[in-house]
Specification:
By secondary structure, the protein is an all-alpha fold. The chain has one domain: Four Helix Bundle (Hemerythrin (Met), subunit A) (Up-down Bundle). Helices cover 73% and strands 0% of the residues.
């Protein structure tokens, strides 16, 4: 999960990528890191929404931050299921920032015993 998240986050920063591609990669990285945090506690979820919602418990993240990820989730669903992705530059900026924070927090978790 961490390697996948690292790779996707790194790729999302490649200059010249469209905002759509940056968004998709950063969203996938946020999900990978968030899922890694949930699994660190021994839980699994098939729901992307719940993986993000649990961040307030798994990584002690502020509710406002996982709500930004919920907005990203909604945008991702529109793209996946309706073929419509209109990336808001501010939302992309917040997604990148939150994803980097999640990356840092999940990597700071102690090794699983």
């Amino acid at each position: 999960m961490l390697r996948a998240g690292d790779a996707k986050l790194k790729d999302s920063l490649i200059s010249g990528l469209s905002e759509d591609s940056q968004f998709s990669l950063a969203y996938a990285a946020a999900h990978a890191f968030s899922l890694a945090a949930l699994r660190w506690y021994g839980y699994r979820s098939e729901s992307r929404y719940l993986v993000f919602q649990c961040l307030q418990h798994t990584l002690d993240m502020d509710k406002a931050k996982w709500r930004v990820l919920d907005k990203c989730h909604q945008a991702r669903n529109l793209a996946e299921y309706e073929g419509h992705l209109d990336v808001n530059p501010q939302l992309l900026k917040e997604l990148m920032s939150i994803t980097k924070e999640i990356q840092m927090l999940v990597k700071a978790l102690p090794p699983v015993k």
